[in-house]
Amino acid sequence: MGANYSATLHEAHNMPTTPQIKRSQVNAFHSSTKWKLHFDSLKDTNKLVVIDFTATWCGPCKYMEPVINDFAAKYTDVEFVKIDVDELMDVAQEYGVQAMPLFVLIRKGKVVDKIVGADKDGLQKKIVKHRASLY
């Protein structure tokens, strides 16, 4: 019985890692310098970037977190970035963040669209619209 129990624990432990390998991730930045370097590296690509401006105390932001994770898994050709406005105030100020969550869609270093609030369907429509112009 002990061997079966150990095997079951081992299998259960390994199961969650399999989907994560296939999933795109949401990149969180905690340094303005690292964000700037990453942003500069994306300027010359045609990749759509979705920046999620959030805060730990923001209820609607917490509601949108699993939604963004799902979108990152679904739209693996899109770069998803999470920036906490309290950590990177200079970046939030640069993008004129006044309400959260704020989603800023960027291509080639230029803002192509924005959406304010926990509008899951609206955000998905804008992602689909702007990633379609990739192809």
From TrEMBL:
Coiled coil: none
Domain Thioredoxin positions: 6-132
Protein name stated in the entry: Thioredoxin domain-containing protein
SUPFAM superfamilies, per database record: Thioredoxin-like
TM annotation in the entry: none
InterPro entries linked to this entry: Thioredoxin-like_sf (IPR036249), Thioredoxin_CS (IPR017937), Thioredoxin_domain (IPR013766), Thioredoxin_H-type-like (IPR050620)
PANTHER family xref list: THIOREDOXIN
Matching CDD domains: TRX_family
Pfam family, one: Thioredoxin
